[in-house]
Amino acid sequence: MQPALERAGHTIRRGTTARMNAATSAENTQADLADVARVLAGEVAAFEGIVRRWQGPLINMAWRYCRDRSRAEELAQEAFLRAWRGLSRWRQESSFSTWLFALAANVYRTELKRFPTETLPLDAAPEPAGLATQHNELAAQLSQDAVRRAVLALPLRYREPLVLFYFHEMDLAAAARTLGMPEGTLKARLSRARTLLRQRFPQLKEEHGARKVFTLETGKEAAR
Amino acid sequence: MNRAKTDRGEAEHTRIETEIGQILAGEEELLPSSGFAASVMERVRQEAALPAPIPFPWKRAIPLLLLACGGIVWSTVELVRLGVPGLNLTTLGQSAQSWLTISLPPLSAVQLRSLEQAGWVALALGTSLVSWLVSRRLAGRGGLL
Lengths: 224, 145
Description:
Chain A has 224 residues and is mostly helical. Chain A has ten helices and four strands, in the order E-E-H-H-H-H-H-H-H-H-H-E-E-H.
């Protein structure tokens, strides 16, 4: 069981890999097909099954786009509404998840262009760790947050491939399908995005100790 | 010496990129708030309860659009012909003139001018009437059409 933290009504779980495993299961595919058929036949309540199955992935995808928990839910809600309106346009040439992720990426991109995210909300600040590990954990958390925020500052053409690549747990093909671009193009953009991040954090260093600590210019004081 | 330095630099770049990759891959996962699915379904039900949007009546609109386009083209030709006397000799002007000459009995220049003005007024009134009727029809109040 993963440790869970409650923050402002939201729960976060660290390091879970359940996100895309559920998405790829045959069970989900069958359930999606059945629910879509029922919705198209006029049974509105059947859409709830789709929402319950995909709310986690869609909120997490939105979270990676904006790093704001409330906004992530708003964006995911908008994506579900668009999916509801456009359900009859899903031709079943691709899997339902591919169609849904592509639609959601489109919604997030459009919405964030209209109202860009500028600041990280206060509740994203790291929580204090235990006394013995407080310094190291805080420093690590600060530097990890800095890297994640730096992703948001990348130009969209590099940010989106990076966000979706890691959202899809480094599945290049899945990220390419969501973006509707060839894998080669995605690879090139990922490489460029990594280079830009590396240039942004040239001082990212690994210190030796009980655990890895990343020191950045901004995190140095906390680390020492 | 330089080669070793370059290799060290590349290794360092790779290591930094790997570390960045690890940070991004080891992302915390957000769990949806308890009321999320319910609030989405509420909005979906609201949308489902709304009457279906009226589809655009293309079948009726296309002839009208074609008519309007034809009218615009014809009036442009006429405006150009009247505004620039030299263009009276252009093919389009000639064909329009020849059409008028063929279909109408011989008229004096003054009569032709009056007829043309009356034609414009009739066209304007006709367009207004058609647009009024179409808008009534689209608004679902029935009507003459």
